[in-house]
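Can't paste images in this forum, so I'm doing it all in text. The chain is below; anyone willing to post the predicted structure tokens underneath?
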Amino acid sequence: SRKYERETSNLLRCLRSNNSYKGFRYTSYGVGLDIHDPELLTYISKGLYVEIASRFQTSIGCVERDIRTVIKTIWEHGDKILLYEVFGFEIAQKPRNGTFIDAVAYYVVEHYYDKYGKNHCCCSQNCKNPSYLLSLNHLLSFLSYKYCLFFQAS
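Text version of the structure:
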């Protein structure tokens, strides 16, 4: 779960969310929980939010509100190209919490880890599949993500 939280945090930063938001940690943790137990999203208020609230010793209402704030920040000020890449299509309106967490969880699993837990992003320097043809959106989001990571490291 920690590896998914770390990758989710990196992705949220690249989407232009700030880790000073409480919802940033809640979202990262929630994505990790969703990856390991997707049923938690079925009844989000009685499943996922309860687990997050318990872990961070806060209320379910605070968890919901703080995750919503992160999503709103990304929607209003974030990297739209990367956001559309995460969802797989251009979304017309701000996503709801469960939809956002589900899309991020799917994206993190598909783009960062295979069943053995190794980085396998087709765009990475360790690419094992050179015949992969990148879409323009995938290429732009990858470059945006790498640019973001580069400046985080410096």
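The CA atoms of residues 31 and 105 lie 5 Å apart. The chain is about 65% helix and 0% strand.
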